[in-house]
Amino acid sequence: MDSENTTRRVKEFQLLGLTTNHPVQYVLFMAFLTICITTWLGNLTIIAAVFTDHRLRSPMYFLLGNLAFVDLSESSVTVPKMLWDLTLQRKVISFDGCMAQIFFFHFTGGAAIFLLMVMALDRYVAIYKPLQYFTIMNPRMCVGLVAGAWLGGFVHSLVQIVLIVRLPFCGPNILDNYYCDVPQVIKLACTDTFLIELLMFSNSGLLTIFIFFALVVSYTIILVQIRVHVTEGKTKALSTCGAQITMVCIHFVPCILIYGRPFQKFSEDKALSTLFTVITPMLNPLIYTLRNTEMKNAIKRLLKRNVFSEIK
């Protein structure tokens, strides 16, 4: 009987959320609801502009449209549940729901990271091989690279979930967060998790750190090439790369601080998680549209078409 009790699996996890103060919860609900609406409107506008405006039929904007779709998907994994829980006193998630949230969170997050690598490759080809750019980055290549980014995110997430679901969870079942993620869930396993934590750290932390520094080096080389050799369109190239570097930092820095260290609890974890899951998907479209004249003009044309069609 004792053996049976120690190996039973918990049916649900209790989430402590961001705060237990009810007035603060309602304030956070309104703030995050506004951010969520802004995220959806911003990313959907970018997607609509990219795939309806013939002036944006280039590999760079195709990749940007896909990044906007990834941001929408990523924010949809955790934010709706968080908003719902902010209206409740007791916040719970089923075991299967928790595993599904971890899977899709790392699936979309991994796809976003690999897609940022693809966007860096696109800028590299545009700067170093300008005459062959459209030949190399042809539609088939772009679709293949985007599919590869999603495949990379799927494999990354599958490794995470396969390692977690095999662990015994017999209690406690309290997660000091507002969503399920590997660092918190793995600590609730009723077994020694040192080896699993090491594997998780390698799959998430070390991989993220390596990709981040590789991207920083790549963009540094690209910026040097732009300043030294590019004469026509230098300002536009610098602005585009600057926007992408900003997006890389916004994506990677919180991710590294969460996964690029041993799985220990720090007081800043919830703030970093909020930045990573709620704020980042909203900032990407704002940063890119504010720094890209062609995108701003395309959005203006999109809005004018819709406004005039409504009037007629």
Percentage of residues assigned to helices: over 70%
**N-end to C-end Cα span:** 74 Å
> Order of strands side by side in the largest beta sheet?
2-1-3
Number of domains: 1
Oligomer: single chain
CATH superfamily placement: Rhodopsin 7-helix transmembrane proteins
Encode the helix/strand succession as letters: HEHHEHHHEHHHHH
How many individual helices? 11
CATH fold label: Rhopdopsin 7-helix transmembrane proteins
Total strand segments: 3
Please describe what this structure looks like.
The chain is mainly α. The protein has a single domain (2-311), classed as Rhopdopsin 7-helix transmembrane proteins (Up-down Bundle), CATH 1.20.1070. The protein has eleven helices and three strands. It has helices at 2-7, 22-52, 59-85, 95-128, 133-136, 139-165, 182-185, 194-229, 234-259, 269-291, 293-311; strands spanning 12-15, 91-94, 174-175. Helix 2 (22-52) crosses helix 11 (293-311). The radius of gyration is 21 Å and the shape is globular. The chain starts with a helix and ends with a helix.
Protein traits:
globular; 312 residues; mainly alpha; three-stranded mixed β-sheet; Rhopdopsin 7-helix transmembrane proteins; disordered N terminus; 3% strand
Could you provide a short overview of the structure?
The radius of gyration is 21 Å and the shape is globular. The protein contains 11 helices and 3 strands.
What are the SSEs and their pairings?
Blueprint: H1 2-7, E1 12-15, H2 22-52, H3 59-85, E2 91-94, H4 95-128, H5 133-136, H6 139-165, E3 174-175, H7 182-185, H8 194-229, H9 234-259, H10 269-291, H11 293-311
Parallel strand pairs: 1-3
Antiparallel strand pairs: 1-2
